[in-house]
Amino acid sequence: MNNTAKYISELLYRYECVILPGFGAFLTKRQPAMIQESTHAFFPPQKSISFNSQLQNNDGLLANYIATAENISYTDAVAKIQRYVLSLNNKMASGKRIELEGIGSFFTSVEDTLQFEPSQDVNYLTEAFGLNSFISPSIIRKEEKTAPKVVMAQVTREAYKEEVQAIEETTPIAFTPERRSERPYLRYAAVAILGLGLIGSLGLNEFNNRINLHNDGLSIKAEKEIENKIQEATFEIASPLPAINLNIIKAEESSSENSETDINPSISGKYHVVAGAFRIKKNATKKVLKLKAKGFDARLIGVNKYGLHQVVYNSYENRLEALKALQNIKKQQDRRAWLLIQEL
Prior knowledge:
The chain is 41% helix and 19% strand. It starts with a helix and ends with a strand. The protein is an alpha+beta fold. InterPro entries: HU-CCDC81_bac_1, HU-CCDC81_bac_2, SPOR-like_dom, SPOR-like_sf.
């Protein structure tokens, strides 16, 4: 039994184009819900089916689906499709009408052209699953006769007004809305509200101006603090590389550096606990004096390859002593301190 038509129907739920190789392609297009006014019928959204005999090349969709569903090879699936198409062509050649269940019917017209009539029994739009078309009876609206009531109400109101006016002629109190005196206190209340609004607007502007001045002052102060931090920036290496021993020939000291023997004395030891690096030498000198005040044998050890003046807490000959000192300094002074191994 050839179930090719059934497989085509199943694929139409998921795809907009299913090609039957050698015969043609079945195309689907989404249609919105609609109402047929003549019959008062309501139709849910659906996929309309059309047929194009020009698309006959095998795209592999139907053949792969049949091979998976029947657990056969792709070649066998293609052969099965070819046999099915051959049987359809033979039936059409004999003038028979072909019915594909759930898809539609094919027949040959008087002009000997292939005609397709889609089926209306199956809705291939999965979003509209469970929605069926239905016919609703027409709604008949009854007009209520309310004109006499309106006329009666108008007559009653006019009679009541004339009666009240007659009473007003003998009493100083005004009853009808037309003769009520104006209320001057409403004017004063409106003027007072307008005045309060103007005062509130002026006060709000003054408050905004003060806030802006305060914010400007804070911005200037923050910029100055940032500039100072940049001048005293300390560069930290979070994950230093393994220690490397470097032999660098010490450059000749300039005359100005020789004059600062208390800041940059002769250095002994190749293990240095670095406190920071500064772009401006004056800031580096200040840092040395601060560390000396705390009891450290601080000094300048020269300029690194980035042009920064390096300040150290102390220098050591022994590596273990340097590591122990570094650990204490990180806990008590600055966690950004690090160890430099370099011959000076």
